[in-house]
Every structure is written in C-alpha cells, then in structure tokens.
Design brief:
12% strand; two-stranded antiparallel ribbon
Length: 121
C-alpha cells in the first residue's frame, strides 16, 4: 500500500508483519516496516530481546524481538528534548561557557607553574 505524502506516521501505534527465518538465520524485514522505520540499504539496526511479563508462562519462544534503526548521528535523536525556558541561556551556551572557564583556569595554572620554575632555576 503506497504511503500518502500527507499521511501521519505510526507514532504510538503498532504495526505487524510476518516473515520467516532462512536456513542461514536471515530474516527479511517486511517492506511496510522498512518504509515506516526509514530503513535504507546499508543502514545499521540493533536487535534486542524483551522478556515476557512475569504473569505469563516463561517460555523462550515468547520472547519479543525488537529491531531499532541506529541513526547516523545518535545525538540528533535528542535534539530539542530539553526545551529552553524564556530568558534562560541554552544548555549549549552554558556548556561552552563552562569549558572556556575550565581552559582559562588550566592556562592560569600552567603559567603559575612556569613562574615557579623560573624562580627556582
């Protein structure tokens, strides 16, 4: 089924598809799942096993397999998660300021050590 351009993604919904494991252990991810996940040839994926709830019969066949796409830039996934409050400096600005302060402190300490060496020499 072709995806409409204005169709909303399946955020918060479940998609189901079936496949088979080959004799070599290969599994083809169904096209509708690949399309929804944005998977392209060469993309990396991560596999995770999820145990069944404790109230269910414990059977290895009941484990759930989760497939996740690994983004090219993992940090981009977190962009915008911590919104900036009005009048508050951004986290990036704070981190850069802290790093500049650390560099200045280290440089002062290095200059002080050099001065002490010159006095004793």
């Amino acid at each position: 089924m072709p995806k409409k351009k204005d169709a909303k993604p399946y955020v918060g919904k479940h998609m189901f598809a079936r496949g088979k494991v080959s004799s070599k252990g290969w599994v083809v991810i169904p096209k509708e799942i690949r399309d929804e996940m944005g998977l392209q040839p060469g993309d990396e994926v991560q596999f995770a096993l999820w145990p069944v709830p404790l109230e269910m019969k414990q059977d290895r066949a009941l484990l759930s397999l989760r497939v996740s796409r690994i983004p090219e830039d993992p940090a981009s996934v977190f962009a915008g998660m911590l919104p900036q409050r009005p009048g508050e400096p951004s986290w990036t600005d704070n981190l850069l300021k802290d790093r500049r302060d650390e560099v200045e402190k280290e440089e002062r300490e290095i200059r002080e050590v050099k001065r002490k060496r010159r006095r004793t020499a």
